[in-house]
Fold this sequence. Notes:
The protein is an all-alpha fold and 91 residues long. 74% of the residues lie in helices and 0% in strands.
Amino acid sequence: MKYQTWFxxxxxxxxxxxxxxCDSKVKRDFKAGCQAGGLDRSTxxxxxxxxxxxYSPEFMEKMADVTVRETMQPPEDFNxxxxxxxxxxxx
Length: 91
């Protein structure tokens, strides 16, 4: 159940919009949603980088695309990867 919550959070995070300097639109959107959830910018950037490194930039773009995300089943380890990234970046 806890991991389903993380998937919901990442969905919201990837869907939100706010512009910042130099990052891809997907990363900017992720960081904006993450910050709206109460984390600081550097922690949010760290989380994104770890998740992107585990999967790929293409995967992150697909997760940000609402039409793809609605039909896409996330990888089985997605919630674990996300939770680990959050834990590592907050320490």
